[in-house]
Amino acid sequence: QVQLVESGGGLVQPGGSLRLSCVASGVSSGFSLDYYAVGWFRQAPGKEREGVSCISSSGDSTYYAGSVKGRFTISRDNAKNTVYLQMNTLKPEDTAVYYCAAEFECGSHLYDYWGQGTQVTVSS
Q1: pLDDT by residue (tens digit) across 79-107?
Q2: Which DSSP category does 26 fall into?
Q3: Can you spell out the DSSP letters for 49-90?
Q4: What whole-number distance in Å separates Cα of residue 39 and Cα of residue 103?
């Protein structure tokens, strides 16, 4: 049973940084995260889930929401079945539960796996 597990969330002051990780666990010998594009999403209390960033299966293409462009960087290490989201210059409005998902390709909305989420709180 493949699962995506997020980590790296926490409490940080405005202007600070966090790096989130999304690791595929419980993988069988035939599974590889590099079959998939991986997206990061977030959901704040009382708000709808929104897409934050996505990286293609090869890592050659990346996409960002306008609200995070220039502050967040997505990357992947396919050898480790891991995708990262480096978040810099964090703002209180970045506070949310962050999820990763494996999808057919960025923007396809064809998701095979979702993580359970990790809380990010930006507050002084």
Answers
A1: 899 999 999 999 999 999 999 999 999 98
A2: S
A3: -EEEEEE-SSSS-EEE-TTTTTTEEEEEEGGGTEEEEEE-S-
A4: 7
